[in-house]
């Protein structure tokens, strides 16, 4: 009983903190600018990014597999549900074989859930639409978000795996719930891998809101991890293609602030996301990423991680 009470108090404190943050950094700037903050180009201009990723052990039949990667929609006061129409059109124009959504569908309030799910149901891909939750989805009641999405027919992965097949070859897709720390992320991956056929040769994909799951993903021989959460850094002061990565708010806060990373034969893509909870982006515009898997070398891909990662 005491543990249950303590857990409720922690959740209530998190909700209060979230509402204070939302009032100060989302609603107040919008009101002070007469709504202009919500219309500024840095958070409105959407780009699509197509990137080839070479996987040395990729089966030839999987060469050319197209994955549309969405994250951090933050539908709410700053990002209205009307923007989802443009998102759906942009994704379908990419002609993806699989659509991955790595969390933060809503910013805070659940009143938009119905409209969000209606838009997500319009997304079509042969291998389906696969969703994991982010920290904002849990701010009020994460279970309510999960139940709603599943009730309308959307696929939500909570530390689970699913076997897919493309051109006769198997793909193991794992999706984990949000966790803020590496140890919890590792436990979530271990749970998702439970009962998976590890001997069957397969492309292994991991969907995680937090990019730090990449550390544990390498131990579980996951080929490609897709994540969001960082908004590409939100405020990027200087772009740098060297091993140091970009310099800005994200590089001070996250080990993998944004873009493509490689360690040995394992890859991580961190998208800058579709939406925002703060009405300003600098040098990291909203995006929808299309990742095209290739079995041939791609000399354009650099191996790097942020120097603050150690």
In short:
This protein is of the alpha/beta class and 310 residues long. 28% of the residues lie in helices and 23% in strands.
Give the terminus-to-terminus CA distance.
40 Å
Rough outline: globular
Helical residues, percent: 25-40%
What's the multimeric state? single chain
- Element-by-element helix/strand order: HHEEHEHEHEEEHEHEEEHEEE
Overall CATH architecture = 4-Layer Sandwich
Counting H and I runs of at least 4 residues, what is the number of helices?
8
Arithmetic mean pLDDT: 87
Portion in strands: 15-25%
Q: How many β-strand stretches?
A: 14
Radius of gyration: 19 Å
**Relevant CATH superfamily:** Metallo-dependent phosphatases
Q: What is the top-level CATH class?
A: Alpha Beta
Descriptive account of the structure:
The structure is a single chain. Helices cover 28% and strands 23% of the residues. By secondary structure, the chain is of the alpha/beta class. It has a single domain, classed as Purple Acid Phosphatase, chain A, domain 2. The strands form three sheets. The protein has a six-stranded mixed sheet with strand order 1-14-2-3-4-5, covered by helices on one side. A six-stranded mixed sheet has the order 6-7-8-9-13-12. The chain is globular. The C terminus is likely disordered.
Name its key features:
Purple Acid Phosphatase, chain A, domain 2; 310 residues; 23% strand; six-stranded mixed beta sheet
Write the SSE topology.
Layout: H1 2-32, H2 41-44, E1 47-54, E2 66-70, H3 83-93, E3 98-102, H4 113-120, E4 129-132, H5 142-151, E5 155-156, E6 160-166, E7 169-175, H6 182-193, E8 203-207, H7 213-219, E9 224-227, E10 236-238, E11 247-248, H8 249-253, E12 259-263, E13 266-270, E14 287-294
Parallel strand pairs: 1-14, 2-3, 3-4, 4-5, 7-8, 8-9, 9-13
Antiparallel strand pairs: 2-14, 6-7, 10-11, 12-13
């Amino acid at each position: 009983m005491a543990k249950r009470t303590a857990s409720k108090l922690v959740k209530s404190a998190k909700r209060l903190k979230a509402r204070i943050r939302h009032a100060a950094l989302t609603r107040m700037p919008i009101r002070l600018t007469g709504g202009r903050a919500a219309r500024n180009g840095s958070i409105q201009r959407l780009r699509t990014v197509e990137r080839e990723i070479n996987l040395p052990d990729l089966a030839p039949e999987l060469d050319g597999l197209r994955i549309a990667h969405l994250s951090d929609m933050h539908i709410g006061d700053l990002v209205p549900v009307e923007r989802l129409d443009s998102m759906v059109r942009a994704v379908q124009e990419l002609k993806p074989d699989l659509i991955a959504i790595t969390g933060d569908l809503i910013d805070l309030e659940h009143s938009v859930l119905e409209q969000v799910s209606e838009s997500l149901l319009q997304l079509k891909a042969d291998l389906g639409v696969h969703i994991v939750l982010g920290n904002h989805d849990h701010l009020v009641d994460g279970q309510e978000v999960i139940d709603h999405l599943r009730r309308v027919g959307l696929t939500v992965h909570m530390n689970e795996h699913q076997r897919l097949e493309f051109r006769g070859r198997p793909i193991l897709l794992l999706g984990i719930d949000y966790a803020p720390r590496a140890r919890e992320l590792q436990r979530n991956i271990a749970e998702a891998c439970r009962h998976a056929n590890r001997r069957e040769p397969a492309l292994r994909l991991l969907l995680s809101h937090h990019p730090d799951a990449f550390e544990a993903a390498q131990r579980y021989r996951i080929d490609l991890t897709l994540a969001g959460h960082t908004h590409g850094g939100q405020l990027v002061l200087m772009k740098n293609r060297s091993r140091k990565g970009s310099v800005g708010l994200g590089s001070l806060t996250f080990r993998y602030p944004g873009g493509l990373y490689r360690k040995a034969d394992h890859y991580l893509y961190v998208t800058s996301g579709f939406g925002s909870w703060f009405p300003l982006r600098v040098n990291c515009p909203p995006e929808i990423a299309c990742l095209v898997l290739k079995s041939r070398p791609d000399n354009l891909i650099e191996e790097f991680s942020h120097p603050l990662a150690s």
